[in-house]
Structures are given as C-alpha cells and as structure tokens.
Write a structure and sequence with these properties.
Elements lengths: L5 H10 L1 H11 L1 H10 L16 H17 L3 H15 L2 E12 L2 E11 L5 H4 L8 E3 L3 H9 L3 E3 L20 E4 L2 E4 L15 E7 L5 E10 L7 H14 L6 H25 L3 H4 L5 H4 L9 H11 L3 H4 L13 H15 L1 H4 L4 H14 L8 H16 L9 H13 L9 H6 L3 H5 L4 H15 L11 H16 L3 H6 L1 H15 L5 H9 L2 H16 L7 H24 L17 H23 L4 H40 L8 H10 L10
Antiparallel strand pairs: 1-2, 1-8, 2-3, 4-7, 5-6, 7-8
C-alpha cells in the first residue's frame, strides 16, 4: 500500500471539502470549542502569517475575542474589536454589521458598525443615529439574508444577476450605502483608495429563539479568491459558538428598549409640534368652505382654498433680498413658506400632497422655540434667503428642481428646536445632546429633528419621491444643515474659501454662460460646495439687510448672546467672553465691524462676483459696516472724553479739589442709556 504522508492527506481534503467538513465536525469541532472556552493563555498573533496559525492559536484568539466582549462595558467598542478579529479570521478585506429592528410596525435593517477593516478605527466605522442607513428587508442581499435567515455567497459580483454564479440565492442586485455616497456593485473604484467589491459573504445573525438579530457581511477575501465552503463553515461555527454574545438577549433587549424609547420620544415631540386638526384650519379652512376635513377633500379642492389663502408673492416680497419679516405675523410666514414651494414649481412636479405641505411648514413653525433670536422668524428668513439666492440670484440654473426643493427645506429646518445657547454651552453644561453628537451638536440635532418630521406620513412632503430621489434630498439636507456650523466653517476657513473662490474664478474663464452652466450642473462636488456657501450666506443674511432691519436684528442676536452669558456666569460659574457679556454691551459696534470684516465680507463679495444679481447683499453689507463703524467711533470718542474728564478730575484732586463720588459712573450710565442712541430698540 502506498505511503500516506501530510501532502497526500492535504491534497485529498482539498479535493473533498464535504468530507473534510464532516470529519472536522465529528472529530475536532467539539474539542476546539472546548479549548476556546477553557484556555486562558494570552497569545500574540502575527496578522501577517495567517496561514501559519495553528488551530490552537486560532482558538485562543477567538477566546480573546469573547473575553474582550465580556469584560468591555462599551458594547460598540467590543463589537468593533470583534469585527476586526473576524475580518482577520475570515481573511476578509472589510466587514459591516447591519442590525435588524421593528420600528412603527415595519421590519428594517440599519447600519450599526460599517466598513470595518484591519486599520480602521471605531470613530470611522460607528454610524451615529443621525447618519444611519435604513432600508426595508426587500432591499439588497443583506435584506434578503435577514428575510430568509440563510447565508448568501457571491463569488463574483460582476456576475450578479446570473443565477449560476451565485451560491444559495439567485439575487439580482446588491445595494450598499456608505458615508452619504450610494453605489452599486461595479468595476470602478468605490472610494478614493481605489477599493472595489469583488466578492461577498453575507451571514444572518440569530438569537437563541432563532429570531433574526442582524446581518454580518464580509467583502473581498485577501488572497483574491472567492469565499469558499470552508469560509462558510468557519463563519457558521463562529456564529453558532459565539451566538454573537455581544447580541445576547440582555443586550438585544436593551437595544430594543432604546429603540422603543426613541420611538416614544418621537411620538411626544410630534404630539407637541405636529400641526393639529384645528390649527390647519387657519390655512386650509375646509370646515368652513366644504364642511369636511382636509383629508376628506381632493387635491383640487385644497388647491382652490390655497389660491385664496396664500399671500401674493409680489406683495410679500419673498423674491427680494431686502425682505423684512417685521410686518408679517408668524402665520403669514407659514403661508409665505408654502408659497415658496409653489414658486419653485415642485408641488405639482413631485406630487406633494397639499395637506402634507401645509402641515409640514406649519409644524416647522411650531418646532422652533419661542426664544430671543433663533426662533421661527430666523428659520424662515434663512429659508427665504435660500429661495431668493436660487430665484433672484439666478443660482437655480445649476440645480435641478429636486435639489432646489431640498435646499429650501434645509433652510427652513436648519435651526429647528434651537435652545438659544451655542454648541460650546451644550458641552460645558453636559447637555445630553453633546453626549449624543460628538461634533456640530446643535446642527445634527436640527437635522435629526427635521428628518423626524419628514418620517411622519402626514408631514412627509417627500412621500411620492422614488428611492433615489429621496436619498438625494436627504443627502443634500445633511450637507446643507451641517454647513451652518460656523465653528466647522472657521476650522476649514481657508479651504472653504479657496474652493469657492476657485469656482468663482473658473466661471470667469467661460465665454458662454450656457457652457458654464452645463459644466456646473455635471459637477456634483462643485455644486455642493456652492450650496454649502449659500447656506452660510443665508444664515448670516441679517447682516446684509437694510440698516433699519440689521440694527434691530443685531440687538436680538446680542440679547440672546447675553442671556447665554448670564447662564455661564450663574450656572457654570464662568466668566463669559466679551461677545456674551452684557456688561460689555457698548462694545457691540466694534464686535459687529470685526464680524463683518473677518466672517461676512468674503462670502458676499465672492457671491456678488459670481452672480451680479446678488450684489445688493454686498452693498447693504458695506453700508452696514459704515453704520457700525460710525457707532464704534462715536463710542470711542465718548470713552476718550470720559477718560479726559477722569484725568482732569484726578489732577484737580491732586490739587486738593474734591470730586463728587460716583460722578464718572453717572456719566457712563447716561451714555449707555442715552435715548438718542441708534442701538436702542424701537
């Protein structure tokens, strides 16, 4: 009989994977699992020599994973570390975890930890609540895996759609959404590193009751080969052994409770914010006209009422950069907000239900708190300026109707539920929002609040968009609202300005305006840069209003800052910065001049250079700069006079003359309270 050596055995096992699996299961699997549970040796594993690892070393490594899970109180960190280990064990380039949940009675998958690789960090891969990707179970391979609770192995993604090439499933499409960028399996790279998807192994995760908990998906075996049956077997063994202990019943229950609490919170918010049946009658007075509720009327009947109810656009001046909200009630602004959607031409084009549109804008107005400055009036003014930049400023030429609708909506939503204090105060005071959002705290809250409203069927103006259209408008809202974080703008100031200025410069090299427009419309990145700068221009637009408006709004802004300063002094026991200190109110003109010079001037100068139609904003900005500078000089002159008077009194005192006590303070008080001062509210 021929001698049997190791090479012969390995060759036989490689040629008979089914037998190898059966033999392993019956002779070694129990011992390996036992070793996993019993060993306590700490082994350092060299990730560069995977194929040289013994089964014992692999067992000890898996045990380290389990111990890490049991000892680490931070579930996300434990899950992330586990996934990195699994990527190594499976020889996979990347891995993602999708969580299953029931929300509002609908089963769905949501990203939890995404795009994990050997060199990734938890911060890069952990998906925050406001950026999670959610889709139903009838979408993509991962949705299908969750539905049927069976593994899917795609050896070659270029053959997706060819049943003979896909193991376990004849699936037509895999859809993945990552970091706000959507992509389908294709040959070209999916990110700046040149990475492409070649093969996929997707595995359902179930609990002890065989209920679906999530889906783990691996991408690209490192040796370039497809995932094979041994990989499937290894994955099955790992999931069966671990039971994905990080997703044990207790943890899973906690996660479900968190989701339930989130749903309850959203219900509470909607109850107080959502436009009520009696409130909608202020605009859609169907009871008076038709004797029935709005949802009992057809679109033509509702349209007829709106034609009579809404304020004429020319009369309200919503197309004007000098628009003033002082003469309008908050309900008038709701009506003007509705009118802007009509003027954009999106109501009919995207089949926005009239009742949903009215309820949405009305609910936005209720979602803004009644605070000194960041209230509904400010929210509306930002939306109106966005509308005016698009229409009167002619920037609409670069954007589709769908994009323009998203930009208007972002403007109206951008500060909803603002608390009257800035991001730094949220962090200093330990506000839960600061713990939920690591950066752009309030901006992310405003964004999530707006999305919460849009998720309600009665308020969802996007309800008749298809999937791709819906993803685009949400993507643009994400970019636009986060762009209003001035701290983020300052952090990348030179980069933002340079990119925008480069676009403006480039526009001047085109002889044909139509050619330039066509070029811009095809350049998504440039359009998003311009949109982000538009949001900055909109958020700061009060500085570019006529002086009689700007001076009054500036006092409202300052008053809100001083209110925060009072909180910092009393609650946090800290000295506020000069801008927040009401004891330095007289420095407001100086602060305004600095704000115009270092923040606002570039924005409006470049937009005026970009589109001459926007020049009125720059002209009013420069005029306001003169007005503030005049007040600054007046204040400095009076301070100089006070200083001279003080010096004269000191000289007189030194000559044995007695000054009246409190006289200097009275002089300063008389100046600060001078009824003729231009800074006094009307």
């Amino acid at each position: 009989m021929a001698a049997v050596n190791q090479d012969v055995v390995e060759k036989f096992l490689d040629s008979n994977p089914a037998f190898a699996k059966e033999y392993y299961d019956s002779h070694f699997r129990a011992q390996v699992i036992s070793n996993m549970l019993s060993t306590s040796k700490n082994t350092n594993v060299d990730t560069t020599n995977y194929h040289n690892l013994s089964s014992t070393e692999e067992s000890e490594m898996v045990f380290d994973m389990v111990r890490d899970l049991q000892e680490n109180l931070q579930m996300e960190k434990a899950m992330f570390n586990l996934m990195r280990h699994l990527c190594f064990v499976m020889r996979a380039d990347r891995m993602s975890l999708f969580m299953y949940r029931q929300r509002n009675g609908t089963a769905e998958l949501a990203t939890r930890i995404f795009n994990v690789s050997k060199d990734a960090t938890l911060e890069d891969c952990l998906v925050p609540p406001d950026s999670e990707i959610v889709y139903p179970l009838d979408t993509g391979i991962v949705g299908h895996v969750a539905s049927v609770k069976k593994m899917v192995n795609v050896p070659d993604v270029t053959q997706v759609g060819k049943p003979s090439k896909i193991k376990n499933e004849t699936f037509l499409e895999l859809y993945v959404y990552c970091n706000w960028v959507q992509f389908y399996y294709r040959k070209e790279p999916l990110d700046v590193t040149g990475w492409t998807i070649k093969n996929v192994l997707s595995m359902p995760i179930v609990n002890k009751k065989e209920e679906i908990v999530g889906v783990a998906t691996f991408y690209n075996r490192k040796d370039g080969k497809p995932f094979d049956e041994m990989d499937e077997t290894l994955m099955e063994s790992l999931t069966q052994f671990l039971g994905w202990s990080v997703l044990n019943p207790d943890t899973y229950e906690k996660m479900n409770k968190l989701e339930n609490r989130k749903d309850i919170f959203q219900d509470m918010v909607l109850y107080h914010v959502k436009c009520r049946k009696d409130e909608i009658q202020n605009i859609l007075n169907t009871r008076e006209v038709y004797g029935k509720e709005p949802d009992e009327c057809d679109e033509e009947e509702l349209e007829a009422i709106l034609a009579e109810t809404l304020i004429d656009s020319e009369q309200s001046e919503i197309f004007e950069f000098h628009f003033c909200d002082f003469e309008h009630s908050e309900m008038d602004l709701v009506k003007c907000g509705i009118s802007m959607y009509y003027e954009l031409g999106v109501v009919d084009k995207f089949h926005i239900p009239r009742e949903a549109l009215v309820r949405f804008v009305y609910s936005l107005s209720k979602g803004y708190r009644r605070i000194t400055y960041h209230n509904w009036r400010h929210g509306f003014n930002v939306g109106q300026t966005m509308f005016t930049l698009l229409m009167t400023g002619d920037l609409k030429r670069y954007y589709t109707d769908l994009e323009a609708m998203a930009m208007l909506t972002a403007g109206l939503c951008h500060d909803i539920d603002h608390r009257g204090t800035n991001n730094l105060y949220q962090m200093k005071s330990g506000n839960p929002l600061a713990k939920l959002h690591g950066s752009s705290i309030l901006e992310r809250h405003h964004l999530e609040f707006g999305k919460t409203l849009l998720r309600d069927d009665a308020l969802n103006i996007y309800q008749n968009l298809n999937r791709r259209q819906h993803e685009l408008v949400i993507h643009l809202m994400d970019i636009a609202i986060i762009a209003t974080d001035l701290a983020l703008y300052f952090k990348t100031l030179l980069g933002c300005q340079a990119m925008f200025q480069k676009i403006v410069d480039q526009s001047k090299t085109y002889e044909s305006w139509d050619d330039w427009t066509k070029y811009m419309m095809l350049e998504t990145t440039r359009k998003e840069i311009v949109m982000a700068m538009m949001m900055t221009a909109c958020d700061l637009s009060a500085i570019a209003k006529p002086w009689e408006i700007q001076s009054k709004v500036a006092l409202s802004v300052a008053a809100e800052f001083w209110e925060q300063g009072d909180l910092e002094r009393t609650v946090l026991e800290q000295q506020p910065i000069p801008m927040m200190d009401r004891n330095k109110a007289a420095d407001l003109p100086k602060l305004q001049c600095g704000f115009i010079d270092f923040v606002c001037a570039f924005v409006y100068k470049e937009f005026s250079r970009f589109h001459v139609e926007i020049t009125p904003m720059l002209e009013r900005l420069l005029n306001n700069r003169k007005e503030w500078n005049a007040l600054k000089e007046e204040h400095e002159a009076k301070l100089a006079m006070l200083e001279e008077a003080k010096k004269a009194k000191e000289e007189a005192a030194s000559a044995n003359s007695v000054a009246q006590p409190g006289e200097n303070f009275q002089n300063y008080y008389n100046y600060s309270c001078d009824p003729k001062s231009k800074l006094q509210p009307k």
